[in-house]
Structure formats: structure tokens, C-alpha cells
Design brief:
By secondary structure, the protein is α+β, with helices and mostly antiparallel strands. The chain has 20 helices and 13 strands. The strands form three sheets. Strands 1, 4, 5, 6, 7 and 8 form a six-stranded mixed sheet that branches. A five-stranded antiparallel sheet has the order 9-10-11-12-13. A two-stranded antiparallel ribbon has the order 2-3. A hairpin with a 2-residue loop joins β11 and β12. The two termini are about 45 Å apart.
């Protein structure tokens, strides 16, 4: 019979430990400790403390920074889990020098990091630049959606929140009415109902206070958008796993070693609106880096997917100095390589095809009969339309707009092919470019020509391998897939800490 040595993996053992020997060269914790202790200027944290003569000694900022980044690198996002690891995990003990900060101290340190995160992020970028990890050949921008520390149940427009408040008040009132109608209720039921009423009143008061102290948010078209009571800066976002209440973590990286050069989290701002501030911040970061040894004869290439495509963004990028390649949502359809394949269709396109299944194609402006000389227009059914606007400007283009008469559109036999919904206040509207605008090529049309060229397709094809692995590493490999703070400022700092972990990991192989 075989005789094996016993498994003592669950047995406690008292042994002498040298903490310095636990941090091995080539590991993430080795790179982290070396950078924090020898490369970073942490003097900015000194302004947080004024306890040299009175009060207890504070936890050293370098220790706090090391245990937080190490915790994030191991997917320990909660301050409680990081504090527990400092008490029980030999690696965290070694990194912290056996200092065991309380979880409230860790949470408070992270919450105040927005005051110091920008200079720290830049200092790490400078180290990456010194090690030759930034190539300045191609930059790529993209975003990932992160769940925030807020419930989506507390989201809604002001009108929706007002209705929810009224519903809560009615439920609270029904409890009182039931008590008045039934005097013989047991003491246990009365106590239970009163607790429920207190909860309902508290929720209603929370909505009342929010509506009184905040202004309603509006979208790009001026329509009201949903606000969140718990975290007003966050937004409802649709992901492949459903709808979440969260933020969009935007990052711009370099293609040589996938170093993140710019990082910022956005809540209730559309992805298109994040491009211009992100590029402006990127330029400020590049000015701080050592650019003397790089003499580019050609502009740095800049790529982005269709989520960032708009006339305003393309006009901005045309003046930015970058050689830009931004796809539109019809880019793959125009590419013959993807003509017969459905593998590369976006989720948005799949949903659109599913919604439109069995429905007739809606008329476009090409189906209307427009006479520019007489400035008249007739709809596909032959009805005359009235001119509702001339020289209407949109995205640097001028249009002439026509509108159908409501009485004609309501009884039109082609209504289902012309309008998505039956007309209520106005008939079908259609607009045509002016002769001058037709001669002027828009930035969107210029980008279509550029990105459909062989060179454009080749350059844009590099975007996927440049930026997507960054989010895979942060969210999947490292487990940094949600946020523990609230508010744009604090969330932005935590997102930059996540990206800082990624950049330090890239430096890991250069420090032995």
C-alpha cells in the first residue's frame, strides 16, 4: 500500500519571517515598491497632515498607496478586503511593513486621492517614457462601462421621480387608513406597519430633497434625461449583460506597449462628447513627457471606433495635428471583406435588424420630389408640402426643410412607410441640402473616403489590438470591473488608479 506524506496546507505554523525576502524581483509587488519608494514624489501628501506636535502618527502615504494598488491588482477593490489582507496575507504584510491600516483609513485615503492622482499618473508616465515603452506611432481611444456604487432603481427624470414620490406617499397613507379602519390589529402587525411607513416616508423625503436641490439634466437635444438620486453624476448604461448604473471609463493608449496615456471617467455624458476633452488632456500629458528624442516627420496616428464619430469631432480632430482614423457605423458594410459575414456586425446593428424585421422600409429624402428652382416639394403620395425652414444649419451644412400638412399625413395610405408613429402634432418632415452645401464635402464624408482607402483600412485594423487588450487586462485579469466611490471627481480618481495598476504592470518586466 502506498504511503504518502500528510497534507499540512491547513495546519498553522509559527516561523520567522523576513518581510524583505518575500518581495521577489520580477513580480508586480517588486515593481510597485521600487517605483513608489524610489521614483515618485509623494511630498504633496504632506499637506494632508498637521500632526507633528499633537495627535497620533499617520499611516505613511507610500504604505497606503502600495497596499491600495496591490489590492486593486489582485481584484480587492473593497477597503475592508484590503485591510483584512494586511492582517492575514504575508504578501500584503511585506509590502506594508506589517502596518495594518483600518479600512476606514484606506477608504478615506482613496476618497481624497483626486487631489494627488494627476501628478502621480504623470510621474509614472515619465518612467514609462524613460524605459522606452511609449512609441508615439499610434494612439487609440475607447471606453468600458463600469458599475458604480449606486442603485439604478433610484434613477429617473424629474417627472418619473415625482410620480415615484407620489406613489410612496400613497402607500404610506394607506397604512394609516388601514390602522384607522381596523382597531383590533395585533401589536406585532402595528409595529411592522409602522416600520414600513417610516421606510416609505424616508424614501419620499429623499426624493423631495433631491428635486429641491438639483436641476434637471437635459440631453444633447434638450430633452430631459434620467438623474440618479444616490449618485447624480452616474448614468444608466446598456451593456451586453444588461442595464447598469455606472460610468464610462475612457482611456487613450500608445500602441507600442499599450501604456495608458490619458484616463478619465464620465457619467451622464455621451461617448462622442468625451473625445475633445480627452484629446486636449492627452496633449497636455505629452507636453510633460520627454519628446526631444522623438522627431516625427509624420503626424501620430489616432484611431477610434464609430462611437466617437460625429461632424464636430471630425472637424476638431482635423485641426488637432493627429493623423486620424475614426470609423462610422456603416464602415464594415462598405468593406467587401465583411460583406457575406454576420460575425462582425455590431450589437446595435443586430438589434436594429431585429426591430425592423417584417416592417416596411421608411421613405428617405430621395423618395420625395424636390424642385430647388421653385422651392417646392411633394411627398411620395403626391401631396404638396410647405417650406418650414430655409438655410437651416446643422453640422456645418445648410438645408431647406419641408413639412407635410397634418390633415394629409393623418389619412395618407403610405403613412406606415413614411412615419414610425402616427402623426399627432405635425406631419412628416424632410430636409434637402442647399446647392452650396452639396458642393462642400463634410468632414464625415472626407473620413469615409480616407478610412475606406487601403491605407485607411490597414491603419484602422490596428485599433483592436491596440486598445481592447487594455480593458481586458483591467476588467477581467485584474478584476477591477466596478467602482466603490460616488461622484464624478472621486470616481475619476479611482479609474485613474486602475489605469495606474496597468501601467505599473507594464514596467514590471523592465525592473529586475
Amino acid at each position: 500500500m502506498a504511503n504518502y506524506k500528510p497534507d499540512l496546507s491547513r495546519q498553522n505554523k509559527f516561523i520567522p519571517i523576513n518581510f524583505a525576502e518575500q518581495i521577489l524581483p520580477g513580480t508586480f509587488e517588486y515593481a510597485l515598491c521600487y517605483i513608489v519608494e524610489n521614483k515618485l514624489d509623494l511630498s504633496g501628501f504632506d499637506a494632508w497632515y498637521n500632526n507633528d506636535k499633537t495627535g497620533a502618527a499617520a499611516y505613511p502615504p507610500e504604505v497606503m498607496l502600495k497596499v491600495i494598488l496591490l489590492g486593486y491588482a489582485h481584484g480587492l477593490i473593497s477597503s475592508r478586503r484590503i485591510a483584512k489582507a494586511c492582517e492575514t496575507n504575508i504578501l500584503f504584510m511585506s509590502v506594508s511593513g506589517d502596518i495594518q491600516p483600518h479600512y476606514t483609513s484606506i477608504a478615506g485615503f482613496v476618497a481624497k486621492m483626486h487631489e494627488q492622482i494627476e501628478p502621480l499618473f504623470t510621474q509614472v508616465l515619465m518612467i514609462c517614457d524613460e524605459e522606452g515603452l511609449i512609441g508615439r506611432n499610434m494612439f487609440a481611444i475607447d471606453g468600458c462601462k463600469l458599475k458604480s456604487n449606486a442603485s439604478k432603481e433610484w434613477s429617473g427624470t424629474f417627472d418619473e421621480l415625482g410620480r415615484k414620490k407620489a406613489k410612496l406617499e400613497r402607500a404610506s397613507k394607506r397604512i394609516i387608513e388601514r390602522h384607522q379602519a381596523q382597531d383590533g390589529l395585533s401589536e406585532e402587525l402595528v409595529t411592522q406597519d409602522l416600520k414600513q411607513k417610516e421606510k416609505l416616508d424616508k424614501s419620499a423625503d429623499k426624493i423631495t430633497a433631491f428635486l429641491a436641490t438639483h436641476e434637471e439634466k437635459t440631453g444633447s437635444k434638450g430633452k430631459p434625461v434620467k438623474s440618479n438620486i444616490t449618485d447624480p453624476d452616474s448614468a444608466k448604461m446598456t451593456t451586453s449583460k444588461g442595464t447598469i448604473q455606472g460610468y464610462n471609463g475612457i482611456a487613450i493608449n500608445d500602441d507600442k506597449h499599450q501604456i495608458i496615456l490619458q484616463a478619465q471617467a464620465w457619467g451622464s455624458v455621451g461617448e462622442q462628447q468625451t473625445l475633445q476633452p480627452a484629446v486636449e488632456q492627452l496633449k497636455r500629458q505629452l507636453e510633460k513627457l520627454n519628446s526631444d528624442k522623438f522627431s516625427h516627420k509624420q503626424a501620430i496616428k489616432f484611431t477610434a471606433d464609430s462611437g466617437f464619430n460625429s461632424e464636430a469631432n471630425l472637424e476638431f480632430m482635423a485641426q488637432s495635428g493627429f493623423d486620424t482614423y475614426i470609423a462610422d457605423n456603416q464602415f464594415r458594410k462598405r468593406n467587401p471583406l465583411f460583406k457575406e459575414s454576420e460575425t462582425y456586425e455590431t450589437e446595435q446593428e443586430k438589434r436594429r435588424l431585429k426591430r425592423s424585421k417584417g416592417k416596411p422600409r421608411l421613405f428617405t429624402s430621395d423618395d420625395f420630389h424636390y424642385d430647388e428652382a421653385t422651392q417646392t416639394c411633394h411627398c411620395p403620395a403626391g401631396n404638396e408640402m410647405w417650406r418650414s425652414g430655409i438655410n437651416v444649419k446643422s453640422y456645418n451644412q445648410e438645408y431647406t426643410r419641408f413639412c407635410g400638412y397634418l390633415k394629409d399625413c393623418k389619412v395618407c395610405p403610405l403613412q406606415q412607410q413614411c412615419m414610425r408613429k402616427p402623426p399627432i402634432k405635425t406631419g412628416r418632415q424632410v430636409q434637402f441640402k442647399s446647392d452650396e452645401s452639396r458642393k462642400k464635402i463634410s468632414y464625415i464624408d472626407q473620413m469615409k473616403v480616407k478610412i475606406d482607402s487601403p491605407i485607411g483600412r490597414r491603419q484602422y485594423s490596428k485599433r483592436l489590438g491596440c486598445i481592447e487588450p487594455v480593458f481586458g487586462n483591467i476588467m477581467v485579469n485584474k478584476g477591477m470591473n466596478k467602482l466603490t466611490l460616488r461622484g464624478q471627481t472621486k470616481v475619476n480618481a479611482q479609474w485613474q488608479l486602475y489605469c495606474l495598476v496597468h501601467n505599473i504592470e507594464k514596467l514590471q518586466n523592465t525592473m529586475h
